């Protein structure tokens, strides 16, 4: 608003108005074997991000599942930092924390990290280095953003989903009151480092889960990327490294482009284009007591919204079918029993996800839907009857697919 316009609006009082400008580079690095001695990337990032002496301190938080399946990682990390003592000091032991969604379901772990930050006298010039899946990054990011009103955060995502999506963004959070990400902040990390070597120990289920976020950004933003996913679906299903790397790189790039250039990095408006397929996915995760992974729920959420768009004559049947086929070719289930849970009045509980989605953001109701592959728009209402029809269609499709796959 111009000063003149402001002055007109608040004509009955005197006031001071200034624009607070800030400029934050948002950097995503891609590497392999980050903690191999001789890989200069992390040391360079720390060196170039730190302007003052004394040498800053850092706290390392490591995902326990990652630690378990890559048992030499912790000693590699510690040896790496021992070699760069002139760049950063590690005053305490590595915090090894349970990964996965359960971590986000209580405030306790945020508090544990706060306590370590206090114990080791970390300050605003210090770093918190989070290495793990999206859940661990969310919890650690919240702790880092709130201790002393914000320490410097370096995120090192270790799942396909977090490298392709959640880890490269600017949000953090934990779940509360039965709702996803109820407590959280926006905080831009100093750097995100995607180390492809961290992914090799993921279970096929977790390696695949992140593909859905790439399909999501392709559907809403980039038809050519969607075509690439279709063409490479078999290689991706087999987790061929080159295909996996390319998918992560492009997905991360589209996400970051949106955050940096989309005009609303802190989601102040009502639109959440990157949350296509998420209104039902978040509810489904909760209905399944988090036994369905976020990425798996997103694949189902995309399928539901795609069928909905086709039933509402918003999306051509051929385009809708291409998206469903691509998700299936990547190995996703497009239906889950929890979608059919009903409340005491017989209404599908998943529909509560629509209101929770609006409440999380505030403002008027707005859900991202598709006009075509690569073209999204914001809808201000959803027809519950059509959602129910889409749910039934997904169930019928899933039953048919299973009967085709079942041994004769
Ligand atoms: N902040 C955001 O902008 C944002 C965006 C999207 C999603 N998210 C959140 O991200 C979370 C999902 O993240 P995720 O898909 O990475 O799952 P996750 O963090 O739940 O990790 C899945 C499992 O894999 C384990 N793990 C992590 N790295 C491993 C490795 N390399 N090898 C073996 N096991 C490993 C974890 O311990 C966990 O048990 C959800 O909580 C979701 O809400 C956040
Ligand atoms: Zn997501």
Describe the structure.
- The structure is a single chain.
- With 408 residues, this protein is α/β, with parallel strands linked by helices.
- Helices cover 46% and strands 12% of the residues.
- It is built from 17 helices and ten strands.
- The chain has helices at residues 3-9, 41-49, 64-69, 73-83, 108-119, 134-146, 160-164, 204-209, 211-221, 223-231, 233-237, 241-261, 278-287, 294-311, 317-329, 352-361, 384-405, and strands at residues 28-31, 58-63, 95-97, 127-132, 152-157, 174-176, 179-183, 191-195, 367-372, 375-379.
- The strands form three sheets. It has a six-stranded parallel beta sheet with strand order 1-8-5-4-2-3, sandwiched between helices.
- Strand 9 and strand 10 form a beta hairpin.
- The model has no long low-confidence stretch (mean pLDDT 93).
- The structure holds nicotinamide-adenine-dinucleotide and zinc ion.
- Nicotinamide-adenine-dinucleotide binds at residues 63, 65-66, 69, 99-101, 104, 132-136, 138, 158-159, 161-162, 165-166, 169, 171-172, 180, 198-199, 201-202, 206, 209, 293-295.
């Amino acid at each position: 608003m111009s000063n003149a316009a402001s002055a007109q609006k608040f004509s009955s009082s005197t006031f001071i108005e200034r624009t607070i400008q800030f400029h934050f580079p948002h950097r995503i690095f891609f590497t392999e074997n980050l903690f191999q001695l001789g890989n200069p990337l992390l040391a360079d990032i720390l060196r170039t991000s730190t302007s003052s002496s004394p040498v800053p301190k850092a706290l390392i938080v490591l995902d326990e599942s990652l630690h378990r399946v890559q048992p030499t990682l912790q000693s590699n990390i510690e040896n790496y930092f021992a070699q760069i003592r002139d760049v950063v000091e590690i005053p305490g032991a590595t915090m090894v924390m349970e990964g996965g969604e359960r971590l986000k379901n209580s405030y306790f772990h945020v508090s544990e990290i706060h306590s370590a930050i206090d114990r080791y006298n970390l300050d605003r010039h210090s770093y918190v280095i989070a290495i793990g899946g999206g859940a661990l990054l969310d919890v650690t990011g919240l702790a880092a953003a709130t201790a002393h009103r914000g320490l410097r955060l370096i995120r090192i995502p270790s799942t396909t989903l977090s490298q392709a999506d959640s880890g490269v963004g600017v949000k953090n959070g934990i779940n509360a009151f039965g709702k996803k990400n109820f407590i959280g902040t926006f905080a831009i990390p100093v750097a995100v480092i995607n180390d492809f070597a961290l992914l090799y120990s993921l279970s096929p289920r977790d390696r695949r889960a992140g593909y859905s976020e790439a399909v999501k950004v392709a559907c809403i933003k980039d038809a050519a990327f969607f075509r690439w996913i279709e063409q490479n679906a078999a290689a991706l299903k087999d987790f061929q490294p080159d295909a996996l790397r390319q998918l992560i790189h492009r997905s991360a790039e589209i996400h970051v482009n949106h955050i940096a250039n989309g005009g609303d990095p802190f989601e102040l408006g009502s639109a959440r284009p990157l949350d296509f397929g998420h209104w039902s996915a978040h509810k489904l995760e909760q209905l399944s007591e988090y036994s369905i992974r976020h990425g798996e729920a997103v694949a189902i959420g995309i399928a539901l919204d795609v069928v909905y768009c086709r039933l509402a004559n918003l999306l051509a049947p051929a385009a809708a079918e291409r998206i469903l086929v691509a998700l299936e070719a990547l190995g996703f289930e497009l239906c889950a029993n929890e979608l059919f849970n009903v409340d005491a009045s017989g209404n599908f509980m998943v529909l509560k996800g629509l209101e929770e989605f609006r409440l999380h953001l505030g403002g008027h109701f707005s859900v991202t839907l598709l006009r075509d592959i690569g073209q999204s728009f914001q809808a201000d209402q959803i027809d519950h009857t059509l959602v129910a029809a889409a749910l039934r269609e997904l169930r019928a499709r899933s039953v048919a697919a299973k009967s085709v796959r079942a041994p004769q």
